[in-house]
């Protein structure tokens, strides 16, 4: 799996975890010329329904970016949605400035609501993420991998239920 990610981002992959029974994946990479580190975690969001049925589940993606020599982190909370056969796209829901990765005090002001920012600034922050490898290739991979993992977990659950139900019959 790490090989597929390496094809998606032009940086050195530092770590990857796709714990088999966890619904979440996490990985990070480092830009070799600047030393900048990017960490991404993602999991499937809740199911949503309307009168006609169920919508495909979106992924909830968290991106943290750290510059070398600084203890502060930029954190972006994003949603990733499928565009059907036309790939996927992400939108930024929140952008936070976290002063120190060692002291996460959530009572400290981390920034305004993302939707209240000037639209130009919102676009520039999205371009900032795109320049760091957070693009359609990565979001397509995340959606595919998370849905595939969920299907595997579902089949595993069915096997366990079957084993319990059919035991001693």
Automatic annotation (TrEMBL):
InterPro entries: MAM33, MAM33_sf. GO terms for cellular component: mitochondrial matrix. Pfam families: MAM33. PANTHER family: COMPLEMENT COMPONENT 1, COMPLEMENT COMPONENT 1 Q SUBCOMPONENT-BINDING PROTEIN, MITOCHONDRIAL. This is Mitochondrial glycoprotein. It comes from Nyssa sinensis.
């Amino acid at each position: 799996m790490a090989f597929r990610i390496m094809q998606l981002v032009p940086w050195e992959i530092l770590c990857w975890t796709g714990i088999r029974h966890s619904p979440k994946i996490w990985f990070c990479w480092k830009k070799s010329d600047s030393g900048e580190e990017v960490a991404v975690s993602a999991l499937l969001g809740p199911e949503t329904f309307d009168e006609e049925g169920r919508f495909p589940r979106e992924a909830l993606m968290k991106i943290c970016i750290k510059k070398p020599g600084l203890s502060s982190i930029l954190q972006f909370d994003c949603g990733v949605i499928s565009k059907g056969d036309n790939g996927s796209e992400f939108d930024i829901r929140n952008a936070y400035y976290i002063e120190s990765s060692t002291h996460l005090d959530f009572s400290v002001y981390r920034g305004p609501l993302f939707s209240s920012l000037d639209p130009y600034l919102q676009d520039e922050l999205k371009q900032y993420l795109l320049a760091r490898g957070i693009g359609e290739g990565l979001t397509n991979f995340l959606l595919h991998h998370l849905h595939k993992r969920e299907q595997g977990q579902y089949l595993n659950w069915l096997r366990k239920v079957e084993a319990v139900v059919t035991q001693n019959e």
